[in-house]
Amino acid sequence: MKDNAIIEPDSTDMSAAEGFAFLKDTAHILYLRLDRSGQILDSNRFSQNLLGPLLSKGRIQDMIIDFSTAFDLDRIRSKGEKSHLFSINTASGTPLTFDFTFRFMDNSILVFGQPDLEEINAMRHDVTTLNQQLSNTTRELHKKNAQLRDALDHVKTLQGIIPICMHCHKIRNDKEIWNRLEIYLSEKTDAQFSHGICPECIQQHYPDLKEEA
To answer: From residue 94, how far is each of 65, 90, 91, 116, 153 by CA, in Å?
Structure first.
């Protein structure tokens, strides 16, 4: 009977397996497994999506910016330093800061990176500020558009063929009434007229004034 007994899997092993599967496929933290020199041996989906082709560089030292020359796994191991803030390049081109935790195993190093909360809060503040500026700009744009529409409502244009008398220059309106040019334009546009007299008309209609001048 013992030979045919079903062996139940150990619950502790199942829990560890499920936790590792969550870390690899679902968790929103950076996970890398390195060899003792910093060469990347394994990573989770979050890291692959975040870093993309940068993972092909091979070493974690090559992804860290600003303080890459100060990054020393041997020093971290010898001094027992487990948590460090480092900024890394990302596939999007935007550097991000992570709080890295290092776990040193026999032949490998496990790296876990949590996003820097201060940086996240600063980014949220920047996004909020930009949204506010965008909202203000949108309101201002609506205001300008309303002013433009109001101005366009007051613009009158003349189009088409205008019938005009070849002698007196009166214009025939839509009601078949002949009006002086200034009356027609005043009705059809926002133009206003002031009357004067040109030199030729003075000579033609007021020759005495011309001689006195």
So the answer is: 11, 6, 8, 14, 48
Rounded distance, CA 44 to CA 61, Å?
18
Q: Is the pTM of this model over 0.70?
A: no
Burial of 98 per CB tally in 10 Å (0-12, 13-18, 19+)? buried
CA geometry: angle 63, 69, 71, nearest 5 deg:
70
Query: How does pLDDT run across 33-45, given as a tens digit for each residue?
Result: 988 888 889 999 9
Sign of CA dihedral 130, 132, 134, 136: negative
Q: Which helix (H) or strand (E) covers residue 211, if one does?
A: helix 207-212
Query: What is the reported pLDDT for 155?
Result: 59
Helices first, then strands: H and E counts in the chain: 7, 8
